[in-house]
Amino acid sequence: MHKKSETSARNKNTECLRANVGHSDVEAGSSRFRRPKRQSKLFLSNSRMARSAWGPLPSVALKSLRRLTESHALSITAGDLQLLDGRWYVTHSGLLRIAQRRHCAGIGTDLQKDFSDPSLSHWVFKATVYKSAESKGFAGYGDADPSNVSSLVRGAEMRVAETRAVNRALRKAYGIGLCSVEELGSFSGPPRAAAAAPHSNGSHGSNGSNNGHPRLRDQLCLLIRKYELDPVRVKRYAADFCGTEVLRDAGRDLVESFITTLADQAAKDRDGLICKLNSYGLAEAVKS
């Protein structure tokens, strides 16, 4: 009897152990499946937003977008990515979100006085990212002067240099080979006149590029993101400014003029610009 009771107890314990192991396997499996499902939803959202903002995408850009979504959970809706001349670029806010998700311990910056020249508005910064409290840090350097920053941020070269340094350090720390928008030197000057690079077919499409300069659509997207403007109302304002029903029907020279005007208004009186954009929202509401 004693042996039978021991055998019965042992069998019960074995059954319980198998049940617990099976239950934990199911939980682990479900957690493994939940993550790809979230990434799949994020990729679908990213691809929809990308097509809405930049039109049809080539297969190479879509594959790259899927890889970025799966590797770093970057979101176009949140402003983590920008598509410029067919290439993806990560933004400063996108890098900060990655650092937050990875529980970054801290970021430090130091002005490199020996390499900076305030009289020329030339600044160099060193940034160090600490992934954990025990981390020795990942360093990155960034520089800025009037020759390699956009005309939209002239006078803020020191801040641009610091941002570039932080971006480089974050990319090193988290293994992100993607260049950041803020590091690009191609945004150093104003857009060239349309006459400098006429289209072979004589058209003046509003989204062409000139000798490596950013396309007008990309310039407009950067302005919208920088000043946190409503993209729908900006497009309505642009169409009204250019005298067309929709923005895509406007000539390149008119779009260039609008971008310059919008940048000037946003820099000098953003609140006034917001009020003007709100009027386009009211006008649309009255129509409907």
How would you summarize this macromolecular structure in one to three sentences?
This protein is mostly helical and 288 residues long.
The total of beta strands comes to 5
Overall shape:
globular
Structural class: mainly alpha
- Count of alpha/pi helices: 8
What is the CATH architecture assignment of the largest domain? 2-Layer Sandwich
**How far is the N terminus from the C terminus?**
86 Å
Helix content: 40-55%
What does this structure look like?
The protein has two domains: 58-189, 2-Layer Sandwich (Double Stranded RNA Binding Domain), CATH 3.30.160; 199-287, no CATH class. It contains eight helices and five strands. The chain has helices at 2-54, 59-72, 92-101, 157-173, 216-227, 231-242, 252-268, 270-287, and strands at residues 81-84, 87-90, 106-111, 123-130, 138-144. The protein has a three-stranded antiparallel beta sheet. Strands 1-2 form a two-stranded antiparallel sheet. The longest helix has 53 residues, at 2-54. The radius of gyration is 26 Å and the shape is globular. Mean pLDDT is 78; it is low at 17-33 and 186-213.
Topology:
Blueprint: H1 2-54, H2 59-72, E1 81-84, E2 87-90, H3 92-101, E3 106-111, E4 123-130, E5 138-144, H4 157-173, H5 216-227, H6 231-242, H7 252-268, H8 270-287
Antiparallel strand pairs: 1-2, 3-4, 4-5
Protein traits:
mainly alpha; Double Stranded RNA Binding Domain; three-stranded antiparallel sheet; 8 helices; 53% helix
